């Protein structure tokens, strides 16, 4: 590990969390590859925060995510539970035997065609050469071969069944923890209810497995700043996440715990049981995760957390299918990679604990997220020009299923703008030309951004970061962008030529009064339920008293945001 790294351990719980995580780790891997390229300038983001270095049994240096993920039986497809990077010791011992050897091989799931070029001991770099993964300090083994291979295919939506179908990152053998008692596919044996998820981590087998993996990763850290949990909220993994957060709080007091509660795309009125379970799981998950986390942020492209279906959010320069987890998770991973920038910086990072403290004062431990993907900068425009185009409207699309932020109050916010070339940070006015706005008179990009936020939200505690590093759009990221140049600049009409390679992104975390309405609406929906009709949910380990307590907790949490119902104090 590089000196001074403030390590973060990621827990990835659930199948949609797996989709978001696969895009997230593919992006980290793409950025890591560029950071080790001699032609690239030193990065602004520290890969050691999320990655660990190691060595295989054959002496090969490795760089793998500091990750523990949990999913259900049947969710891995062709991915091995122990990963593909480290050889099995018992197999090596067997091969050393000179006598007769008999091998019994189980039929494997067919590998997605997109992953056929993904070597067990190397990766296909952007220049088409197979290489062993280099580690962040630039050391590493030479190329396995100098033979070039065709550019990797971009997977089609039809070929993506599970998240492992497009994960192009090697995982450590201690990363994957499968819950064998529940099935990913089929109608029977599903992890559907919050109580089921809680009970999983009450079982000694799974609790000890999780604790062993935590100790393995934590003990090798020099300075662990905390944990980030990517957790499905809509199914039984909300209970798994709640128990995991409780365990972390008990064992690692003082460390930051930031939880991202994930919900897939839109739902339909016709699926009564699924919708009721989703409502109950989301409510129980939010309340229990809030009790044990430093900060909780729901992430969804849906318009509502409650029972009433709302259309998915719209992005002016994105065309996506809200019914496809492959698409939705790519967008959420883009936002996640941006709003987590403060605690991953190489220089002057904001710790997870400090970020949570800034946003969660007075009990406001739930925050909302928003992002502009891509940030609309046209050729020839400056940052002040682009920001002025928003007028007084909120510049980002809401990503927490809490409705439109217009007319609500922000109490505190953390904002990141990335991928704007330094030459565009300030207005290049001809000498003697009066500036069209105060933003055009600023002398640095940081000053432009800070003044814009002050104008938008006066008297609000704001933290802002301006990065040159864009979001890399590398395969297998889906083709979602319209009217954009390869560098993500907004063009008039249909783009011509090369595909989009990188984009600027504007992201924010906000403690918002919109949560008052959202949490109260959740409580109202719950009071309308006849729990006798949903005995199967209650039988999974939830008592009627638990539901009554849940309603009280939701209403108390909603009250924390009540004072900001309007923009006027």
UniProtKB/TrEMBL annotation:
Residues 6-118 form the Misato Segment II tubulin-like domain. InterPro entries: DML1/Misato, DML1/Misato_tubulin, Misato_II_tubulin-like, Tubulin/FtsZ_GTPase_sf. Residues 156-345 form the DML1/Misato tubulin domain. The keyword Flavoprotein does not apply. Gene3D superfamilies: Tubulin/FtsZ, GTPase domain. It is found in: Cytoplasm; Mitochondrion. GO terms for cellular component: cytosol; mitochondrial outer membrane. Its main location: cytoplasm. CDD domains: misato. The keyword Aminoacyl-tRNA synthetase does not apply. Pfam families: Misat_Tub_SegII (PF10644), Tubulin_3 (PF14881). Keywords: Cytoplasm, Mitochondrion. One of its GO terms (biological process) is mitochondrion distribution. Involved in the regulation of mitochondrial distribution and morphology. Required for mitochondrial fusion and mitochondrial network formation. Belongs to the misato family. This is Protein misato homolog 1. It comes from Macaca nemestrina (Pig-tailed macaque). The gene is MSTO1.
């Amino acid at each position: 590990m590089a000196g001074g790294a403030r390590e973060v351990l990621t827990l990835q719980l659930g199948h949609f969390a797996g989709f978001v995580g696969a895009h997230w780790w593919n992006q980290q891997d793409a950025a890591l590859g560029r950071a080790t390229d001699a032609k690239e300038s030193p990065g602004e983001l520290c890969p050691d925060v999320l990655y660990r270095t190691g060595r295989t049994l054959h002496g090969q240096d490795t760089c793998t995510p500091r990750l523990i993920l949990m999913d259900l039986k049947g969710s891995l497809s062709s991915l091995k539970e122990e990963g593909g990077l480290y050889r099995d010791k018992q197999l090596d011992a067997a091969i050393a035997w000179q006598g007769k050897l008999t091998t019994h091989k189980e039929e494997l799931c067919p590998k997605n065609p997109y992953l056929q070029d993904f070597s067990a001991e190397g990766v296909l770099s952007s220049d088409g050469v197979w290489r062993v993964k280099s580690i962040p300090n630039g050391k590493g083994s030479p190329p396995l071969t100098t033979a070039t291979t065709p550019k990797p295919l971009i997977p089609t939506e039809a070929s993506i069944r599970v998240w492992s179908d497009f994960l192009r990152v090697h995982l450590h053998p201690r990363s994957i923890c499968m819950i064998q008692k529940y099935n990913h596919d089929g109608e029977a044996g599903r992890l559907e209810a919050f109580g089921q998820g809680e009970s999983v981590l009450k079982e000694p087998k799974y609790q000890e497995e999780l604790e062993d993996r935590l100790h393995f990763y934590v003990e090798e850290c020099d300075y662990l700043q905390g944990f980030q949990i990517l957790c499905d909220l809509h199914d039984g993994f909300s209970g798994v996440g709640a128990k995991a957060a409780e365990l972390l709080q008990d064992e690692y007091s003082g460390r930051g715990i930031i939880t991202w509660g994930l919900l897939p795309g839109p739902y339909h009125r016709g699926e009564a049981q699924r919708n009721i379970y989703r409502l109950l799981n989301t409510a129980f998950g939010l309340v229990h995760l809030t009790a044990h986390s430093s900060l909780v942020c729901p992430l969804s492209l849906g318009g509502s957390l409650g029972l009433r279906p709302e259309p998915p959010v719209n992005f002016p320069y994105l065309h996506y299918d809200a019914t496809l987890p492959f698409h939705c998770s790519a967008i959420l991973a883009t936002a996640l990679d941006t709003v987590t920038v403060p605690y991953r910086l190489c220089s002057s990072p904001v710790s997870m604990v400090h970020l949570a403290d800034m946003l969660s004062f007075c009990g406001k431990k739930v925050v909302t997220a928003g992002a502009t993907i891509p940030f609309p900068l046209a050729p020839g425009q400056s940052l002040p020009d682009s920001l002025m185009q928003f007028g007084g409207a909120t510049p980002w699309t809401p990503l927490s299923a809490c409705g439109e932020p217009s007319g609500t109050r922000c109490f505190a916010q953390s904002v990141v703008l990335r991928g704007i070339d330094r030459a565009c940070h300030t207005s290049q006015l001809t000498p003697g030309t009066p500036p069209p706005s105060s933003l055009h008179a600023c002398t640095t990009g940081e000053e432009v951004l800070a003044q814009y936020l002050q104008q938008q939200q006066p008297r609000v505690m704001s933290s802002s970061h301006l990065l040159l590093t864009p979001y890399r759009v590398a395969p297998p990221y889906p083709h979602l962008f319209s009217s954009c140049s390869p560098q993500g600049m907004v063009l008039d009409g249909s783009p011509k030529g090369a595909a989009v390679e990188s984009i600027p992104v504007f992201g924010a975390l906000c403690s918002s009064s919109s949560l008052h309405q959202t949490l109260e609406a959740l409580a109202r929906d719950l009071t309308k339920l006849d729990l006798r009709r949903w005995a199967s949910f209650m039988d999974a380990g939830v008592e009627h008293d638990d539901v009554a307590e849940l309603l009280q907790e939701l209403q108390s949490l909603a009250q924390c945001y009540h004072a900001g119902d309007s923009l006027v104090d």
